[in-house]
Here is the input.
Amino acid sequence: MDDFEKYKTLEDYKEAVDSALAIVEKHFLEENPEQIDEALRLYSEDVEWHAPARNLIYRGKQEIRKMYMALFYAAEGLELTQMERFATPSRVVDDSLVTFRIANDDIQNCPYPVGTYVKMRLIHIFHVENGLITRESGYECWTIDESKA
Here is the structure.
């Protein structure tokens, strides 16, 4: 948790919050096949990426890169709509709605078969330390997109 006493002024605290938000914003902008290596530079060397609903933990940039590359091609027509984002200096919470079609079986522990149209509420919690993401947890609420079924 954040120690408010380590910030000398409210402005210092706000600056730290803005920095954490900017790191996560940059991560989302670079989270695509063409820029994934830039996105990975925002992670610490010992980063962990968690997906509790699918009982998965990826450790290290290379494991995470492999997962992302598979996901990019398995989630056909992926659209992400940000609902809300807020932060403290060391945590960023992002609430988004994601839609896509499962194009292949490369999504590990996927709860639906290939061909399913998915509507997912996705809550990310990013842990940020020293200007880097040290942990990313994606809380996935998977449902079938009835509007496309």
About this structure: The chain has three helices and six strands. The longest strand covers residues 75-87.
